[in-house]
Fold:
Amino acid sequence: MKKVILSLILLLPVGLQAADNPQTIYPKTRIIESVDWYNSQSLQWYDRVSHRRTDAEAWVNYYLSSRYAQASKQELDKIVSDMQEVIPDSYESYLVKGWNAGFSVDAGDYLNKAFAKRPDHPASYAALLLFHEYMLQDATRKEFSQRLFQSNELSQSLLNYSYNVLMSLADGAILFTEGDNTTLPLFVLQDVMNVRRDVQVLNLDMLHDITYRDAKLRSLHIKFSSDVLPDDVLQLKKTLCALLPEQNPEKKFYYALTLSQDNITSIKNQLYVVGLASMLSKNRIDNISTIKENFENQFLLDYLTVDFNGESKTAAGKVLNANYLVPMLMLDQHYLKNGETKKAKDLESIVMRLASETNKIF
Structure:
């Protein structure tokens, strides 16, 4: 990987190499950039660590930019190995090893070592929150939810967006999510703000681990059995999305609009958008009335029209705001059909603003 990256760097115009300075890579709970942008930053951070081998912060940024650029596991493992050679027993080395270990006991060991070295540094909080969820340790999960909430690692728009996700759901709902950045704020809202603690959040990435999956589903009294489960991550996610509702028809299952469409291809005809999530139902439901109730009485929407925090367009919550467009357009059609022109006009102004901010064209 190093040779390939170095060759690409050498092919860049000399002036561009000199002008470009690598930028700090923030967690995706704060900022979400394009894969191409992360790839460009990965090249630049590689150049930095090549010349400053013991620059610990540069190594963290190199790892994160590579991870967000969708580097392979082998490439990420190599970065971790190289860090171990030059800055062993450092906060940054343990932190990156913990991130790289995924959902495992080993990850917790590394993250706890990092936390012990720098308990006031927020970079470990999100991963430790997820680790304690992985271990089903509610008290310590709440501790790190509080730490994460008090840090600057969650964008305000993401918290607002996540609040509206939770408010999209019926009492006692089970919500499928995917990815750290769309799951962490839900836990924080439940643990710190006591928002919708009746909702059970199932992260598909975490459910890939059989130990966690069995313990988590058992703790929620969710039945699940399958003779053969696919090893492929995508196929397993699709299986869980379809079979869990099938085997637990008495429970209400919802799917965050941030889920990859690949996960729900087999059940898409049974899904009804009700806000920032879709509800699974084998029978046709009046989802328009639910959307109307959520937008008019449940959601907090002021942040969509007034930027209280001065966040950039790449703030995590703002990037996700495109997911409002589908339910908003459905609601707009309902207003027009029923002669509620003032409500339609007001909603259309928000739709046009969101479409412009998220680069969506109608």
